[in-house]
């Protein structure tokens, strides 16, 4: 009798020992709508027990057989000591708590929380807004769909900036205060909640404003043949009326005739080279909100001068400063002034290296530049008519250590290392005389 009782006691102990222990941890999953849901249920030892999946009180599966699930999108993938509940093409209604039940005594359960991330959708309240310069305007977008609630950000692009995009705010509302003409453009609100596809919409902002003129260098070199174009870039809304005049020695404007054209806000007039007078020409623009004028000088002196170097180079000590200037008459020399942090560092003549018709090029090698300083150059050129105006400043320097915001670039390939060394040698010789 004692042996029978002992055997029964051992059997009960074995039953207690066989209660499975979950090796799966509880999960809270955020699943993109349309993706696959895959939920695990595994124990250390499953022998003799049955695995059930349920949602609430509804049984989804028993062992590896699906009992009930909408549209037959569920299946079971069995493995040793457990299985996976697979739900294809997740939908919003699939959100909820899924429980894996092991038929032990007492029953063992583990639950997984599933949330369905849905595609965001945003819409702008206004498609187009017209505002006067100096006023305030509110732009708004609202969320039409998307879970979790999407984050809203605003960016702006403008054709005048070559459609460069910059961040301007966040949230459903964007207030533009004391609006200026350069705040016109395309404002884009974007909704993003981590779903693979974001949503966006746009608001076109038009600013009513007087003309603003960008005259560029304000200097045009006079050729002896063909025609001479004078140009000024004008921002104005409504579109400005533009006329050109020659400014005589008393400061009076004399309207000039010539071929006029406009392209992408650049207004130009073409003067016959044989008839063009040297001196100041005035670009005058007017609309219902005001007017502005700018003066452009037509001269036989050399100019304008364009810098061709990269602003940042990959070397921390050597910089190749390259430029070109326009002159019909031969350029005898350039005059280079370089400052470091505003103090003059170099003041020297530079002989042109070569020319192509009226385009004269020169370059200068600088050494021992320090990343912690700001360098700037300005240059003028001399021809048989005299020394022209200085153009610049051109700010440059070596890449700052740790500055990932500026891309380092190589010295142009047409200037080989051998040539750089030769020029450095001659610069050194000149500095000793």
Mean pLDDT over all positions: 86
Cα radius of gyration in angstroms:
38 Å
* Biggest β-sheet strands, sense, barrel: 8 strands, mixed
Number of helices: 2
As a percent range, the share of strand residues is over 45%
Low-confidence segments, given as residue ranges, are 11-16, 402-433
Distance between the termini: 123 Å
* Structural class based on helices, strands and sheet pairing: mainly beta
Oligomer: single chain
The residue fraction in helices comes out at under 10%
- The total of beta strands comes to 35
Overall, the morphology is elongated
Describe the overall structure.
This protein is mainly beta. The protein is 7% helix and 53% strand. It is built from two helices and 35 strands. It has helices spanning 2-17, 417-431, and strands at 28-32, 37-42, 51-55, 58-62, 65-66, 74-79, 82-87, 96-102, 108-117, 121-124, 128-132, 137-145, 151-158, 164-170, 173-176, 185-192, 199-214, 219-221, 227-237, 241-247, 253-255, 259-263, 266-272, 279-287, 290-299, 305-307, 312-313, 318-326, 333-340, 343-350, 354-356, 359-367, 375-383, 386-387, 391-398. Strands 11, 13, 14, 16, 17, 19, 22 and 23 form an eight-stranded mixed β-sheet that branches. Strand 4 and strand 5 (65-66) form a beta hairpin. It is elongated, with a radius of gyration of 38 Å. Residues 11-16 and 402-433 have low confidence and may be disordered.
